[in-house]
């Protein structure tokens, strides 16, 4: 399998190459040259497999010859062996139509673990082969950071620099990052929003003084969903849920709390692979650029508004570029022009082809603070379940989606409620407690540095601490 950039001018790479590269050297995102497709009979044959085996089968066409079948199976077994539930991503029924896919049983209590537990192991495998060193630079609005740090802490071929927006993540989220004191982990609180952090990360990939792909000193790597391997691993749970609900003989809809558009794009990939998905519902909070883009073609970023669902406080959704590229005819030169325009003005209008292509599968909804609190209360009162604010946004969108009653609607439960105890308690009166697997989080020492958000200060900070590329 070869991967091409959405902006058309970076070299095509194999799976090992894209995993280590993260962002393409032309500033675009890597996507498979063509979508692998499973027949109906092949999908039916996946029913009943244990999660690690299912994961290996779904990922095989994307991995190609970069790993042997045994290597891939072993990595999946090790990655999903760290989950606290035997099903890895269990499905729970709310009522006749509404279901919840619990993605938070990994070590750091959010859906990010599903991909990052695998990605950490992929890095180690590929870096050992090359005897190379990787400098990961990542941005987090709360969950990617802790999941990535858990996945790579203590690995000697990797340094990780993780930027979070100061004061805009929950205390649990911050401590899950800053109490990991391994020498290869560097947490940085920046002034600004997640979007500012993400922009600095992308800039470093293109910095000739820093990135070895541009002649610089460090092999810069990505743990954010700009890295294709993240999305590939997230495709698996769409199959896992749909198979349990009767796929391929029955269609299923998914409602996905969305920020950087990675999780819901993984659902799009599942559909392109042949999984019969009725609808993908893009659920946003008041940072609703994606809702506006899908509803009327207006992709223009305002300032980020802090909310009680902080991980979705994002206005520039990296992976939307992958969708626009695929729906818009896979024309890299046009995409590059469109994205450069957006980077300059922070606004763009979707083309008709992009809008029509997206409309075939996606709908969207926006939830404000009241909608979110109401959905948390409904889950608690009607179904006896405590859900987190991000999941509540997905559930709100699912319940008002108007999907035909005989089609199951699965909301992705992206985080454990105990990551956001204040918001959950305000809405439901119940304060969720942390599961024992996170241990004595509030008794541990924290370590992080603070930076202004200025790119040059960040580059100097990384350059002083990172290991030079091979
Ligand atoms: C808990 C939670 N829910 C939803 C999202 C949104 O997912 P995505 O950015 O893949 O759209 C995130 C972060 O990205 C998250 O941490
Ligand atoms: N919600 C994320 C931010 C988006 O990051 P990505 O890694 O999915 O691109 C977070 O919690 O950090």
From TrEMBL:
Residues 98-326 form the Tryptophan synthase beta chain-like PALP domain. Gene3D superfamilies: 3.40.50.1100, Threonine synthase, N-terminal domain (3.90.1380.10). Pathway: Amino-acid biosynthesis; L-threonine biosynthesis; L-threonine from L-aspartate: step 5/5. Its EC number is 4.2.3.1. GO terms for molecular function: pyridoxal phosphate binding; threonine synthase activity. The modification N6-(pyridoxal phosphate)lysine is found at residue 112. Its cofactor is pyridoxal 5'-phosphate. GO terms for biological process: threonine biosynthetic process. This is Threonine synthase.
């Amino acid at each position: 399998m070869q991967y091409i950039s959405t902006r058309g001018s970076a070299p095509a790479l194999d799976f090992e190459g894209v995993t280590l590269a993260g962002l393409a050297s032309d500033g675009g995102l890597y996507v498979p040259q063509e979508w692998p497709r499973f027949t109906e009979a092949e999908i039916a044959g996946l029913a009943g497999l244990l999660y690690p085996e299912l994961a290996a089968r779904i990922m095989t066409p994307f991995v190609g010859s970069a790993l042997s079948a045994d290597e891939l199976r072993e990595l999946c077994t090790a990655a999903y062996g760290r989950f606290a539930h035997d099903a890895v991503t269990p499905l729970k029924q709310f009522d006749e139509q509404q279901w919840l896919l619990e993605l938070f049983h990994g070590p750091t209590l959010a859906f990010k673990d599903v991909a990052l537990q695998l990605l950490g192991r992929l890095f180690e495998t590929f870096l050992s082969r090359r005897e190379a060193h990787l400098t990961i630079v990542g941005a987090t609005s709360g969950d990617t950071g802790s999941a990535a740090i858990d996945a790579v802490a203590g690995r000697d071929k990797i340094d990780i620099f993780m930027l979070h927006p100061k004061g805009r993540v929950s205390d649990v989220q911050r401590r899950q990052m800053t109490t990991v004191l391994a020498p290869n982990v560097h947490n940085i609180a920046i002034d600004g929003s997640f979007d500012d952090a993400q922009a600095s990360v992308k800039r470093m990939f293109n910095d000739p003084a820093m990135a070895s792909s541009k002649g610089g000193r460090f092999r810069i790597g990505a743990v954010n969903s700009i890295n294709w391997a993240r999305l590939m691993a997230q495709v698996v749970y769409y199959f896992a849920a749909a198979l349990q609900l009767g796929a391929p003989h029955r269609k299923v809809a998914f409602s996905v709390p969305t920020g950087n558009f990675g999780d819901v794009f993984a659902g799009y990939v599942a559909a392109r692979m042949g999984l019969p998905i009725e609808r993908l519902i893009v659920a946003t909070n008041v940072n609703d650029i994606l809702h506006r883009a899908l509803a009327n073609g207006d992709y223009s970023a305002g300032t980020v508004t802090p909310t009680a669902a902080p991980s979705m406080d994002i206005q520039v959704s990296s992976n939307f570029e992958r969708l626009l590229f695929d729906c818009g005819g896979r024309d890299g030169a046009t995409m590059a022009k469109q994205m450069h325009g957006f980077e300059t003005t922070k606004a763009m209008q979707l083309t008709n082809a992009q809008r029509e292509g997206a409309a075939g599968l996606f709908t969207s909804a926006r939830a404000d603070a009241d909608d979110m609190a109401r959905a948390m209360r409904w889950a608690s009162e009607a179904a006896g379940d405590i859900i987190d604010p991000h999941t509540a946004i997905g559930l709100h969108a699912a319940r008002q989606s108007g999907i035909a009653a005989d089609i199951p609607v699965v909301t992705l439960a992206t985080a454990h409620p105990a990551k956001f105890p204040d918001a959950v308690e305000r809405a439901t009166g119940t304060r969720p407690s942390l599961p024992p697997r996170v241990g004595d989080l509030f008794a541990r020492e924290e370590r992080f540095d603070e930076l202004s958000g200025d790119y040059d200060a960040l580059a100097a900070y990384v350059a002083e601490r990172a290991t030079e590329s091979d």
